Amino acid sequence: MDTSSTTLFNNLSMANMTQKPWNAFGECEEWKAGILYSISVEILISVLGLPINVMVLQILLSNTSDSSTTDIFIFNLAVLDAFFSILVLLDFLNLFLFNKENIWYIQQFCYGLKDMGGPLLLCCICLDRYMAVLHPITFTRFKDRKYKIVCIILLWVIVLIYSIAKVFIRTENFERTFTTEILSAFIFLVFCNISILRALTQSGPGRDEMHPVKKKAFRMVRCILAIIMFNYLPPVVLFPFQDYFAPAVFKCYIEPIAFSFLDFSSCTQPLLYLSRAKKIPCLPESDCLPSCSTSQ
């Protein structure tokens, strides 16, 4: 099973390459409910994800002179999520119209970018807040934007290597890389959250309230942890127990639902940013992410 693909369309496309006659539902022709649910989620993400991520990019680009140290990571994450929203449309066209194998290989590479890049960028945001709260002197020393650019370059080198390998290496052990990555990211984010919580509770005697900067950092990391748990924990928990489900049940119901949680990550992060920046009136203000006018 390819647990590293972040949409069900990708799995169906691969299955359809070898099926004659071709059908849009692959092996789930008789059990369409899970597939139809996943397709509905994909359409929602493609419609919602692209404009809200473009809005985040516009905000960041218009406030370059008054940006926070995490903005470079948030910017790259928004680019990745916007790209994923466009990729969903390519998936849809290839599944129901083109059905071309060479397009599928391009999809595999693009999914590698999303699979590895998203969690790594979230970890970078968390690490930035961790250093700001627990090691402020070191954080100030490496606060210069050039260090963040070097970090981003190294991150994308790792992501590109993984994406290329995803296209050419089709073994079960390699496919477990994605699950290992998500588990590692989850553990790292939990560690950051607990460490920041301890630091804030020990901020000093005689203080009834946390320092505003530290409170904002804690809320942001806590919110990132919530995003990780909502988007990544369900597939990580379910996939190792694949053998306990009937093959048809897992392929046609469990897998589509688990992948839908992953897909929502392209919308949850930018929506939280926009709510904090007060750019969407219908959303309540959130302290999960720093506002675009707050520098550090």
Give an overview in words.
By secondary structure, this protein is mostly helical. It has a single domain, classed as Up-down Bundle (Rhopdopsin 7-helix transmembrane proteins), CATH 1.20.1070. Helix content is 73%, strand content 0%. It contains 10 helices and no strands. Helix 3 (71-98) packs antiparallel against helix 4 (101-134), helix 4 (101-134) runs antiparallel to helix 8 and helix 7 runs antiparallel to helix 8. The protein is globular. Residues 1-5, 17-22 and 289-296 have low confidence and may be disordered. This is G-protein coupled receptors family 1 profile domain-containing protein. InterPro entries: GPCR_Rhodpsn, GPCR_Rhodpsn_7TM. The chain crosses the membrane at residues 35-61, 73-98, 149-169, 181-200, 221-241.
Compose a concise summary of this entry.
Keywords: G-protein coupled receptor, Glycoprotein, Membrane, Receptor, Transducer, Transmembrane, Transmembrane helix. By secondary structure, the chain is mainly α.
Secondary structure elements and pairings:
Elements: H1 8-16, H2 33-62, H3 71-98, H4 101-134, H5 136-141, H6 145-168, H7 172-201, H8 212-238, H9 247-263, H10 265-276
Helix pairs in contact: 1-3, 2-3, 2-9, 2-10, 3-4, 3-10, 4-6, 4-7, 4-8, 7-8, 8-9
